[in-house]
């Protein structure tokens, strides 16, 4: 008899297992493929490995701008070696998660789970019983009803975020359907690796709900690198060598389908629990509980935020509740990052989202050239830092960054928003000099 049975060994699942195991609970973790889930095996980590290689290539290609020369020959990306390194990174980190489970005395079972009821789960011929159940089955790519798409997927002409990370050769022309985070990151890498990249996006801007000003800057940066964008464009069909859209077509050697993901809720007996499903996701409260006692859902499957770091925190909150500790999930300060060069990071409200919520705002946008370190390390001068505050209470409700180190700086902004800090409080912070993080300080003194 287990204290907790977890279905899914991705970020939410293995974090819950680690925390519960550390607290002394008897935990069973069921994973059908590999520990780490989509994030570690075919998402966050593999893609960042590729993007780091692209970033190094970019520095090498433009080293003369910094007084560094590479003997006159243009640098090249050896895609095969990049993929080999990516595989080694993934293998090392998956082994680390496995070792962590062992250290916390978590029982790990590989196979497909079938839920019998809230206290019984079957894997193969084995039946396991537990007093609590956590569903952390993650998400799967959205496959829209586009003419020719199914055939394209079956023949390997159309690929998803899983296959794009294991391509043996760089396609001469890569067409990306979807200008979200995954599409943009892969467009960035494969463009650097030698592909002619076209991104087709049905919305009027790339990067989804990203701040409009930053979205525009990011697209201009990509266009300078040769990436073509077709906005406000809907794909209508896929042929054996082309993507057809309303108004024309584009040839391709490979097509990346990256229009989003949806919660994985089918094929493992979820219907036996009679849970509330809303918009294709398992509905949960602020502590991760479903409508059934002792049944939790964390990560992508609850449809709140399909981000690994959100899943980590949801898992921690759920386990805290199991242990009788007071904790609750807050979604006001969940950061989002695009790890291209330059990086983009944001947290909290945009001016558009704040207006939709009826919040009167004031904002300031400060150029990154106000940072001595940014100028010392970059020749580009279009980086920005935007800070948005609630006009009435003067607390920070949104921070949006475009430029180097954005992914690292955003953490401090998350804390400011989470703690509902006012401008006057942040003004008293001492930021290390010279750092790019000083941009937040520069911004708050202009509000």
For the termini, the CA-CA separation is 58 Å
Q: Which term fits the overall shape?
A: globular
Question: Number of DSSP helices?
Answer: 13
- Give the strand order of the largest sheet, numbering strands 1, 2, ... along the chain: 3-2-1-7-20
List the uncertain runs: none
Beta content comes to 15-25%
What is the tally of beta strands? 25
Kindly state the percentage of residues in helix. 25-40%
Task: Give the key terms.
447 residues, alpha/beta, 5-stranded parallel sheet, 23% strand
Question: Summarize this, please?
Answer:
The chain is an alpha/beta fold. It is built from 13 helices and 25 strands. The strands form seven sheets. The chain has a five-stranded parallel β-sheet, with helices on one face. A five-stranded parallel β-sheet has the order 9-16-10-11-12. Strands 21-22-25-24-23 form a five-stranded antiparallel β-sheet, with helices on both faces.
What does the model show?
- The chain has 447 residues and is an alpha/beta fold.
- The chain has helices at 11-22, 37-42, 44-61, 79-103, 149-155, 181-193, 212-224, 308-322, 351-356, 372-377, 406-418, 423-426, 438-444; strands at residues 4-7, 27-31, 107-110, 113-117, 120-123, 126-129, 133-135, 139-141, 158-159, 173-177, 196-200, 228-230, 235-238, 242-245, 248-251, 254-257, 261-263, 277-278, 281-282, 295-297, 336-338, 344-348, 361-367, 384-390, 396-402.
- It has a 5-stranded parallel beta sheet, with helices on one face. A 5-stranded parallel beta sheet has the order 9-16-10-11-12. It has a 5-stranded antiparallel beta sheet with strand order 21-22-25-24-23, with helices on both faces.
- Strand 4 (113-117) and strand 5 (120-123) form a beta hairpin.
- Helix 3 (44-61) crosses helix 6.
- The model has no long low-confidence stretch (mean pLDDT 96).
